[in-house]
Amino acid sequence: MKLPDVILRLLGQTPARRSGPTVELAFLGDVMLARRVEARAERDGAEGVLADLWPILETADVRIVNLECALSTRGARWTPETKVCHFRAHPALVSALTAVRISAVSLANNHTLDYGPDALFETLDVLDRAGIAHAGAGRNEEEAFRPAIFRAGAVRVAMVAFTNNEPGWAAGPGRPAVARMTRLCRAEGTRTVWDAGHSELILTP
Q1: Are 40 and 96 contacting, i.e. CB atoms less than 8 angstroms apart?
Q2: Does residue 189 sit within a domain?
Q3: Exposure winner among 10, 56, 82, 92, fewest CB in 10 A?
Q4: 196 vs 61: CA distance, rounded Å
Q5: What CA–CA distances, in Å, run from 104 to 27, 66, 125, 172?
């Protein structure tokens, strides 16, 4: 099996040149910008939080993370008995993402609503102002399931995102929520992408 270029670079190898148009994707997994990360950013600057990854990410056309915190100063902790960790970082920490040119984030996870709807609403606004696409959570059911649409050069990319965590946060009519994973919603999200005509590349983190 041929390894992706980003993995080859991690292994210290030089990717082979390819003919024809290609899109290189880089996925960073969970990114949590609160607590000690936020303290480091206050000391050294938010732009340097992910800077060590830039040599690996530099040539990618699309860079995607799972954003495991709210970017907000608003809201209050969601406190059911089973919830132990709550993650919220200052909106200025979005600079950690823009500094390494993150294209899109998934918000479909178990920390997006840690500080409730107000923090989610601010997070969405912060990402929009920063030009970072997002999928997997929203102000209502429609927005939660809406694909993120962005470009990688000449290629249009659509990303849908779902989670199987926190059943109490499942999207429903008229309430802010995350897009919860079911076989139906995954198929529906993908169908929405195709119907919108953004079908060159569909990502489902």
Answers
A1: no
A2: yes
A3: 82
A4: 22
A5: 10, 9, 14, 24
Residue positions counted in the chain: 205
Indicate the SS3 state at residue 135: strand
For residue 167, the model assigns a pLDDT of: 83
Asked whether residue 196 carries a pLDDT value surpassing 50, the answer given is no
Q: How far is CA 74 from the centre of its chain?
A: 20
Domain containing 105 equals 24-203
Cβ pair 122, 134 in contact under 8 A: no
Q: pLDDT band for position 82 (50/70/90)?
A: confident
Q: 3-state class of 104 per DSSP?
A: strand
* Residue 4: per-residue pLDDT: 55
User: What SS3 class is residue 165?
Assistant: coil
**Is 11 inside any structural domain?**
no
pLDDT at 1: 44
- Phi, psi at residue 36, to the nearest 5°? -65, -30
Q: Phi, psi (5° rounding) for residue 104?
A: -155, 155
In a domain, residue 9? The reply is no
Q: What would the mean pLDDT of 81-95 be, rounded to a whole number?
A: 90
